[in-house]
């Protein structure tokens, strides 16, 4: 019968696993500082691949659940990636343009690469700056890779169409990321602290609360799972449940 083992170091951290019948030679040559723990099934062994598992007192122990602060940090990391992706999509949305020949097509702009390492917008700017006398190619490639006839006046018209598109700048992206980070970095409640209306805190459960103007009491215990619309009186402050940090971060939209 196949035996399944996890290998752990002197701190108890699982560092690898072994699927097979261990023989005396392998056990004898196990590096110093490492130990073996036999587990019942392959599934039990493989679950340690997720990381964070330890052996405590001879018992295979799962990693601790992430704290609310860790969950909020993970949410911000995921949201930051999603916002960057949305920004790239927005600045690379093709523009529709009809040339003098009456052909309507879509054309790349923004940071979309065309050829020779140049992007569509910078290449167009360079050509227009060179003037009509320098425009000899006579064609511009659309998003399908088809060469469309383009006079210099057409290129000017395409440039105007690009300028007319409302695309976000990088400051818009940074502001959205900052919003998510501000939710992650909400302070905890202060005892006997004066708050202005609208200030927010986060409790030990990872839930955000919005204050009315007033001063908090010495202590305040927030419910672990508040319902939507829940409030909590704290001295002369009334806290209104705003949602979990994770939900608020996920709610930051492009």
Please specify the SSE layout and strand pairing.
Blueprint: E1 4-8, E2 14-19, H1 24-28, E3 35-39, H2 42-46, E4 54-56, E5 59-61, H3 68-91, E6 95-98, E7 104-107, H4 120-130, E8 139-141, E9 147-149, H5 152-164, H6 170-184, E10 194-195, E11 200-202, E12 207-211, E13 214-215, E14 231-234, E15 237-244, H7 245-250
Radius of gyration: 30 Å
Would you identify the regions where 5 or more consecutive residues have pLDDT less than 50? none
Q: Beta-strand level of the residues, as a percent range? A: 15-25%
Structural class from helices and strands?
A: alpha+beta
Q: What is the end-to-end distance? A: 56 Å
Average pLDDT over all residues: 91
Largest sheet: 4 strands, antiparallel
Strand numbers in spatial order across the main sheet: 11-12-15-14
Choose one word for the global shape. flat
The number of E-state strands comes to: 15
Task: Describe what you observe in this structure.
- The protein has 254 residues and is an alpha+beta fold.
- It is built from seven helices and 15 strands.
- The chain has helices at 24-28, 42-46, 68-91, 120-130, 152-164, 170-184, 245-250; strands at 4-8, 14-19, 35-39, 54-56, 59-61, 95-98, 104-107, 139-141, 147-149, 194-195, 200-202, 207-211, 214-215, 231-234, 237-244.
- Strand 6 and strand 7 form a beta hairpin.
- Helix 3 runs antiparallel to helix 6 (170-184).
């Amino acid at each position: 019968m196949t035996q399944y083992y996890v290998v752990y170091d002197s701190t108890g951290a699982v560092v690898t696993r072994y699927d097979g019948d261990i023989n005396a030679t392998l056990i004898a040559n196990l590096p110093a500082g490492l130990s073996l723990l036999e587990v019942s099934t392959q599934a039990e062994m493989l679950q340690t691949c997720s990381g964070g598992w330890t052996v405590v007192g001879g018992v295979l122990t799962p990693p601790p659940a992430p704290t609310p602060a860790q969950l909020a940090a993970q949410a911000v990391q995921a949201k930051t990636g999603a916002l960057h992706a949305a920004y790239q999509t927005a600045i690379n949305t093709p523009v529709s343009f009809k040339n003098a020949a009456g052909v309507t097509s879509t054309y790349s702009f923004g940071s979309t690469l065309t050829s020779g390492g140049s992007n569509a917008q910078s290449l167009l700017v360079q050509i227009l700056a060179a003037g009509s006398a320098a425009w000899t190619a006579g064609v511009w490639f659309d998003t399908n890779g088809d060469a469309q006839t383009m006079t210099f006046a057409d290129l000017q018209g395409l440039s105007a169409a690009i300028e007319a598109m409302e695309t976000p700048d990088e400051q818009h992206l940074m502001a959205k990321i900052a919003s998510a980070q501000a939710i992650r970095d909400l302070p905890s409640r202060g005892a006997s602290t004066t708050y202005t209306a609208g200030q927010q805190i986060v409790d030990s459960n990872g839930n955000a609360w919005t204050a009315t103007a007033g001063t908090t009491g010495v202590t305040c215990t927030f419910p672990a799972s508040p319902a939507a619309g829940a409030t909590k009186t704290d001295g002369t402050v009334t806290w209104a449940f705003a949602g979990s940090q994770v939900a608020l971060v996920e709610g930051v939209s492009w």
